[in-house]
Design goal:
Blueprint: E1 23-24, H1 25-28, E2 36-37, E3 43-45, H2 48-52, H3 54-57, E4 60-65, E5 68-72, H4 94-109, E6 116-117, E7 127-129, E8 145-148, E9 154-159, E10 163-169, E11 174-180, H5 182-186, H6 189-201, E12 208-212, E13 222-223, H7 225-234, E14 242-246, H8 250-254, E15 273-276, H9 278-288, E16 296-298, E17 323-329
The structure holds zinc ion.
C-alpha cells in the first residue's frame, strides 16, 4: 500500500493556538490526507513512519478507516459505490457492517478473520484491558479506551467527528486506542489511559508512540460557552485551545452588494463563534503524559470539511456512518 503524504509525522502536529486573534474557517482549514486504497477496496490512513520503520511494522498493526470501499448503502447516493460504515447504526444493514469489519481487518492485517474488539462508547474516561475473548462483546463492554498486550487481535475505536488516538509501547509491546470527543478530552481520557499503561504494564512514556486520527477540525468545531468554561477550569492551557472564528461565506465575499444591511460595520450577522481544537487538546495530553513531541503523529484532515473521505456526524446532521481506528500486535 502506498501513502503519498511526504510531510514527516510530527511537523503537522505543531499546530499551536497561542494567538487569540480572530480567524476565518478557511484560514484554519486542514489539508485532506490521501488514503491508501487496499486490495479489497478499503481506503485507509496510516502513519507513514510506523509503516515504513521495520522495528515498528514488524510487530505492529494499525490503521484509520475512511468511508471509501465497503458494502454499505445507507449513507451514499443510489448510484455511488458502497461505503465502509463500521458501526452498527440504525440506518445501516447489519450484514453490510459485518462484511465491512472483515474488510477492515483484512486491509490492516491481511486476514479478515482477525478478532476485532470494539466498545460501547459513552464519552467517559473509562479505559479497559481486553483480549481476544472480548471480541463480539460490544454491547456489554462499556468504555472509551482499550488496552491490550495480547497478540493476534485488533482493538478498535469508532468515530464520526470525535478524535481517535492510538498509542503503542515499542519496548513492552502494549497497544491502546482511545475515543476523545470534547467530553472525554475534558475528562483526560488520553492522560489517564497512558497512566493505566504505566500502572498495569510498566510502560515508560519515552517508549511510547502515538497517532491522532481524523476528527472534526478547528475549522469546523464551533462550540458553546459551557465547553470553553469546562476546558478553562480543567487545563492551564485551556484558553489556548480556542479561537474566535468568523464564517467567511465565499458568496458574500464575491457579491458583497447583495448582503448590504443597515448594520454598523463589525456587527455582521455572521460570526464570530468559538472554535475548539480537539486535536491540539489531545496532543497536549500526550505531551503532559510524558511523550516526546516527535513521537506524536497526526493524520490530518477534518471530518466535517472532507465528507467525501469521512463520515461526519456534524456535517450530516446526525445521519452518518462510523469510521474505525484500529491497532494490534501481530499474531
Ligand atoms: Zn473543517
Amino acid at each position: 500500500m502506498r501513502n503519498r503524504r511526504k510531510t514527516p509525522p510530527g511537523i503537522t502536529t505543531r499546530v499551536r493556538m497561542v494567538r487569540q486573534d480572530a480567524a476565518t474557517r478557511e484560514g484554519l482549514a486542514l489539508p485532506a490526507p490521501l488514503p491508501a486504497i487496499s486490495e479489497n477496496g478499503a481506503g485507509l490512513l496510516q502513519i507513514s513512519s510506523w509503516r515504513e520503520r521495520k522495528t515498528i511494522s514488524n510487530w505492529l498493526w494499525h490503521g484509520f478507516s475512511t468511508r471509501l470501499g465497503g458494502a454499505s448503502r445507507a449513507y451514499c447516493a443510489e448510484d455511488a459505490p458502497g461505503e465502509l460504515n463500521l458501526g452498527f447504526t440504525a440506518a445501516d444493514d447489519r450484514e453490510a457492517v459485518i462484511r465491512n469489519r472483515r474488510l477492515l481487518a483484512e486491509a490492516v492485517t491481511g486476514d479478515p478473520s482477525i478478532p476485532l474488539v470494539t466498545l460501547r462508547q459513552f464519552h467517559s474516561n473509562l479505559v479497559v484491558i481486553a483480549g481476544a475473548g472480548d471480541a463480539n462483546r460490544e454491547r456489554s463492554r462499556k468504555a472509551d479506551g482499550v488496552i491490550t498486550a495480547e497478540p493476534g487481535l485488533l482493538i478498535a475505536i469508532q468515530t464520526a467527528d470525535c478524535i481517535p488516538v492510538l498509542v503503542a509501547d515499542r519496548k513492552r509491546r502494549v497497544v491502546a486506542a482511545f475515543h476523545a470527543g470534547w467530553r472525554g478530552t475534558v475528562k483526560r481520557i488520553v492522560e489517564s489511559g497512558v497512566g493505566k499503561m504505566r500502572l498495569e504494564f510498566g510502560s515508560r512514556p519515552e517508549d511510547l508512540i502515538a497517532a491522532i486520527g481524523p476528527g472534526v477540525g478547528r475549522c469546523c468545531y464551533a462550540i458553546g460557552e459551557e465547553v470553553l468554561s469546562e476546558f478553562e477550569s480543567q487545563f492551564r492551557y485551556g484558553r489556548e485551545l480556542f479561537r474566535e472564528v468568523f464564517d467567511s461565506d465565499p458568496v458574500r465575499k464575491k457579491y458583497p452588494m447583495l448582503f448590504l444591511t443597515q448594520r454598523a460595520p463589525g456587527h455582521s450577522p455572521i460570526g464570530p463563534a468559538m472554535h475548539l481544537d480537539l486535536i491540539e487538546a489531545n496532543r497536549r495530553q500526550l505531551l503532559d503524559a510524558g511523550l516526546k513531541a516527535l513521537a506524536i503523529s497526526v493524520t490530518g484532515g477534518c471530518t466535517s470539511c472532507h465528507t467525501e473521505l469521512f463520515f461526519s456526524h456534524r456535517a450530516s446532521q446526525g445521519h452518518a456512518g462510523r469510521m474505525m481506528s484500529v491497532i494490534g500486535i501481530r499474531g
